[in-house]
Design a protein that fits this description.
9% of the residues lie in helices and 45% in strands. The protein is mainly beta.
Length: 485
């Protein structure tokens, strides 16, 4: 089990920082592999720590605000963040910033790969070494996927769903902490069980602490809570997203293929269609997935919705000058443990996403969302996201920029109808992504010379000319059997 988690962690946390000036390359990883008995140097202490855990969605969202102080005699710039080996492979979107100074996130990488170590460490490199006795306020944010478990595991079709979350009231830290507090935000006030600690309850929020005594590095205090969450736990084990750029057609075509599952409680009995249809008149809360809402960019058109059987007619597309919204309804309600695979697609005006560079070298800039997909109140998580940006045939010098941590980057060739050498394709892969990534853009720059722009019409002209010349040549042949006079 520990070795499996190690393998997942190695795949998940090889993030790369790509800038607009960098070429397409293989992902970079940490150059330092730490030994099994590694312990972070005790050069920092946490003066004050506030941990906010949000359980309002189908995944866990963590925000840790901590004031760190350099207690060493020399400047330090490496701050370590620990995770247990069973959790590290489920963590995504880890960002560390200076809370009091807006700016880009600090460089953070996984540096402990020993499969037999119970703890894996992330190392955050501060932009400037922190001098002795100086303090800095860090904001650490991340989310954890597939860590909420339904309890009971099986329920009736119309029963409430309860989830269990296991955690530590002490925030896991590689350094001693002088003062800390943990807050947990629940979706409702229905929290029947809270084991461990003595939380202060205020509405839908539990507060553990403040703990004013010195907490040693690595100290944990196990606790668990069980709370009501009668909503689906929507998780896409895989999402394949294709964006195709057509300069001649002035079109941006998008297609998304989903492998969707509901990680909620399973049904204790067989599904009752009559009971389900009756309940739809008053639409009570349910743990089943009934529909999906996909907001699109204004101006989107020609949407479609298909699954393994074929076209799904239970969809509705609303578009006006202010919004475009695609409402999807699966063929059947997706209860806990059930799966539903489908694909959606749409077109958009390329002018809204593409700009011409005003420089002597020319070139184009494409700005698209890294992730679109459903926007649901209960949240949507993605185990693996594969994004393909299919550029026009002949595009070269491809560069890109994105804030989303990636595990794989490659440049390939995609061949379609009437292509000669194929279209340049940028392939990006990310893991442990959540729907909050919708707001993060992907910027792609590339060169598209005039000769490449006329490649396809010239190919079509030559192809048609070849057909007519071949037909004319065949028509001139004498295939008669009789003797020539």
């Amino acid at each position: 089990m520990r070795l499996t988690s190690f393998m997942i962690a190695c795949v998940v946390f090889f993030p790369i920082a790509i800038s607009a000036d960098s070429n397409v390359s293989e992902p970079l990883s940490s150059q330092q592999i730490l030994p099994n008995n590694f312990k972070p140097p005790q050069v920092f202490q946490n003066v004050n720590l506030l941990r906010n855990t949000n359980l309002e969605k189908s995944y866990v969202r963590e925000t840790v605000n901590v004031v760190i102080e350099n207690i060493d005699s020399t400047p330090q710039d490496a701050y370590y963040i620990p995770f247990s080996v069973d959790v590290v492979g489920k963590v995504g979107g880890l960002e560390v910033r200076d809370k009091k100074s807006p700016g880009p996130s600090f460089k953070t990488e996984l540096v402990e790969y020993d499969p037999y170590s119970p703890t894996q460490f992330f190392r955050t490199t501060l932009p400037q070494p922190l001098s002795p006795k100086s303090q800095l306020t860090l904001s650490i944010t991340y989310h954890i996927l597939s860590t909420l478990t339904p309890l009971p595991f099986k329920i009736g079709q119309n029963d409430k769903q309860y989830l269990r979350y296991t955690f530590s009231t002490y925030n896991p830290s590689a350094y001693p902490t002088l003062k800390q507090k943990t807050k947990i935000k629940f979706p409702t006030t229905d929290v029947p069980d809270a084991i461990g600690g003595s939380p202060e309850r205020q509405g839908s929020t539990f507060t553990y602490g403040p703990f004013n005594d010195l907490i040693p590095a690595g100290a944990l205090e196990p606790a668990s809570v069980r709370y009501e969450f009668t909503k689906p736990l929507i998780h896409a084990t895989r999402l394949e997203r294709d964006i195709e750029v057509s300069h001649w057609g002035g079109n941006l075509a998008t297609e998304e293929r989903y492998w969707l599952t509901n990680q909620g409680a399973h049904l204790i009995d067989n599904f009752n269609r009559v009971q389900w249809a009756t309940a739809q008149y008053y639409k009570p809360p349910t743990s089943a997935l009934r529909d999906l809402n996909v907001p699109l960019k204004v101006g989107s058109l020609n949407p479609y919705f298909t699954d393994d059987i074929g076209n799904v007619s239970t969809s509705r597309f609303r578009s006006n000058r202010r919004e475009a919204n695609l409402e999807l309804k699966p063929r059947y309600p997706v209860f806990g443990g059930w799966k539903y695979n489908f694909r959606i697609g749409w077109d958009a005006d390329l002018k809204a996403f593409l700009r011409v560079l005003k420089s002597p070298a020319g070139g184009y800039v494409l700005k698209v969302p890294f992730l679109e997909g459903p926007r649901m109140g209960e949240g949507v998580s993605y185990g693996k996201v594969g994004l393909q940006v299919i550029l026009p045939e002949g595009a070269k010098n491809v560069k890109f920029e994105t804030e989303v941590p990636l595990v794989k980057v490659e440049e390939a060739v995609h061949r379609t109808f009437m292509d000669t050498v194929g279209r340049t394709t940028l392939k990006l892969t990310a893991v442990n992504v959540v729907d909050e990534t919708r707001d993060k853009p992907l910027i792609v720059t590339y060169d598209y010379p005039l000769t490449a722009a006329f490649r396809k019409p010239v190919t079509i002209f030559l192809g048609i000319a070849a057909v007519f010349i071949t037909a004319w040549a065949i028509g001139r042949l004498d295939v008669s059997i009789g003797k020539q006079s």
